[in-house]
C-alpha cells in the first residue's frame, strides 16, 4: 500500500520513517551461500511512495568489523599464506616480478618503521603525490601501520592546488613521485610551515626510509601502533575534485573501507574469488586508475584484502597501457566508461581500415542482442539467446570478440566500471563479447561504490542495486540519499577542530538525481546542481545527452547549455584520433581541429549524432543548436577535474563568445 502523501516530507529528510528501522538483519540475512559460486542473490527490500519505489535496501553479506584496521591486512595475509603472490612489480626490462604476502608484509613493516624513525606520530597526515605505481600502495599500508593518515594529491595538481591540500590537511610530510613535482612546490614552501619532510620516490627515498627503519625502530613499535587502531580511526583524507569552489577533504575511516571492500568481495565472488573455470588461473588485476581517487584506492585495498594479485600501470598512454595489459594479462579490470568506449571505437576503426567495417557492425549488433537476451533470461522475462543467435555469436567470436578481449590481455572476463553511466548499448556489447561489466555508482563520500550490478543479474543501462549493507533513498526532489557503513564520517575542517558531520539522521545527500525501478536498480538521471532551467521554465538534466554524445567516436567532450536561455544547445569538442581516421577513410588528409570547425561533412555527421541523442528526451529538452570548438577540454586548461568531469563555470567563461553565438549574441 502506498504511503500517504502527508508523510512524504518526513520520508525525504528523515530515516525515522524507514521500513528498516530497528536492528539490522543478521549478516548475510536472506542469502544462501555456495562457496564455489558465491552468494545466491535475493531481491532488495523496497519501499514505495505514491506508487514509485523510493527506497531500496540489501542486507549485508558480512558482519561489520568491530576491531582491527587496514594496517593488519598485509600481516594477516603473510600469516595465512606467506608464499602467495599478492602483488607484482614492473621490471626495468618490461617484465613483472611477483611479490609474496610475506615479502609485502616485510616491506610494509620496514617502511612503517622508517616513517616512525623520522618522527611521525600517530594521527599525523602524510601526503602522497604520484601516479599509480607499486610504491603508492606500499606507502599507504606502511603509513597505516605507523598510525598515520594518508592524503592523496593528484599528480597533475598545480602548485597552488597542492599547497591548499597540504595546508588544509595539516600534512607534516609529502612524498612526491618526481623531482620536478617537489621543485614546483618550492615557491609555496613559505606557506607550508607545518610541512617537515619532502621526499621523492625518484630519488630513492622510499628505500632509504625502509633502510632507516630496519635499524632504528623495533618491530614492537609498529605492533603497538597497529594495536590502537580501530574501525572508527581515520585512515585517509581524500579531497574531492572541486568542480565548484575549493576541494573538501572527505574523512574516510578504516571501517568505511573494510565495510565497502568486504561486501564487494563477497558480492562480486566471480571477480575476486573464483578461479577461471577453463584455465584454473587465480584472479588478478592491473590498476591504472589514479590512486588519488577513491575508486582506485578501494580496488587496491580490496585486492590486498582478498589476496588478489595486483599490478600497477602508471602510464595512461594508449600504447603503454596496451603493452602493460598484454604482459600482465589480468582476469578483471577496474575502468571508466571512457576507456570502454575507446576500446570499442578503436576496434571498429581497425576493422574499417581493413575494409571490414560492415562485418564489425554486424558482430556488434549480434553481441548487443545476445547480451540483452541473456539479461532477459536472468530476469525471467525471456527464454535467452535463440539457437540462431548462439550460432551467430560463435561465428563472430573468432573474428571480432576475441580481438577485443586480446586488446585487454586475453584473459579478461570482468570489468568493474564506474565514474559515469556506461549506457545500455555498450554494456550489452561487452556482455555479448564475453566480458561481464559490473557497473556501479558511488562517491568519495561513500568510499567508492554504493550500488553495483550483481553477478548473474545485470540490468543493462542501470548502475545496479545497493551494495549489500547499503540503503538508497530517492528524496522528494529526486536527489539520491545514501546510508550504510561505508558512508564517511564527514568533511575535514581544521578550523572546526577536525571532522564536521555531513549526514542528516544517517543519510548523506549526494547531489545526484536518480530513480529506482521496481526491482531496486538505480538509474542516474543527472546532477542536482547541474539541472538547467530554460527561460520557458523547462527543467533539463544535461547528463543523458552529454553521455550519449561523448560515446560517439568523433566526439571527445560535450557540454549541454540552456540555463536561463530560450532553448538547449551544446559545445562539442573533437576526438582527433577518431576524426583523423574518419577523414582517411573518406580519402581526405588529416588537418588540425581549428580547420574543421565549419567543415560541412563533419557538421552533418555530428548533427546526426545530436539527432540520435535528442531521441532520449522530449522536444523542449532537445539540443537545438551546437558548435564545434577548435580545442578540447583538458585538465591542464582547467576545463576538467582530475576525474574528467567538466568545470562548467570555467568552460562558460573561457568560451563565452561561442556560447553567445549559439543564442544569436
UniProtKB/TrEMBL annotation:
The keyword Ligase applies. InterPro entries: AMP-dep_synth/lig_dom (IPR000873), ANL_N_sf (IPR042099). Residues 76-492 form the AMP-dependent synthetase/ligase domain. Residues 1-32 have a biased composition (Low complexity). Keywords: Fatty acid metabolism, Ligase, Lipid metabolism. Residues 1-44 are annotated as: Disordered. This is Acyl-CoA synthetase.
